[in-house]
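COMPLEX REQUEST
Ligand: 1,3-dihydroxyacetonephosphate
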Amino acid sequence: MREKIIAGNWKMNKDAAGTAELIEGLKAKCPSIPGNVKAVLCPPFTSLALAKSLLAGTQFELGAQNMYSENEGAFTGEISPLMLKSAGCTYVILGHSERRQYFAETDSFINSKVKKAFAEGLIPILCVGETLAEREKNVTDQVVTTQVKGGLAGIPASDAERIIIAYEPVWAIGTGKVATPAQAQEVHKRIRTITAELYGQAVAEKIIIQYGGSVKPDNAKELLHQPDIDGALVGGACLKADSFSAIIQAAH
Ligand code: 13P
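STATUS: Structure written out below.
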């Protein structure tokens, strides 16, 4: 059975003091992570080193919110996979809809980062999802298919089976409008089918597919009990120890 992975995307929130406060709160509320569940914190780059030291000896793992597709060089303002690894990251979120929308990230650019993440031993959390206009035009399937295939282009099955795909309908992000469990399950199943077409059913069955978009303690359990929903990528509700630990517990 696939494990459940609950990741918190802090986005552009929390300075050093806020990071320490949240992590101390999580350690108090969640002294151990339930069996078959993994919990990942993705704070901003500036908080990674502090988070790493505060999380020592806990079961929480660390991820970043983005990276560049080169190890080093003249790329002002960018962060490399080697830097993320040395800061203690195991995971890296790639292709979040906010990066696609505000920073014009394309599927091919995101794909170059997915390849680089695997090359350097990081696990990518590849985000996909349609906008409200796309859902209303009934093109969710095409949009998600293009993003999944684009993100996975040239990735061998041996890497693909370790990817995490986060289905985050853009209309559900930060809006309080959560996809119904049935709506989410339908797209998750479709993503599983797309990966099966690319890599075969055995690989597809191993891939963790997270749901993201207004996940809260009161809707987490039902979402997480859908057969193809293997975790959550949580925004707003991960910024409070109470609500993020409740979502972690709901995954059990
Ligand atoms: P919210 O949980 O705030 O809707 O954000 C979801 C998200 O974008 C996680 O990456």
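REMARKS: The chain is about 45% helix and 15% strand. The mean pLDDT is 97.
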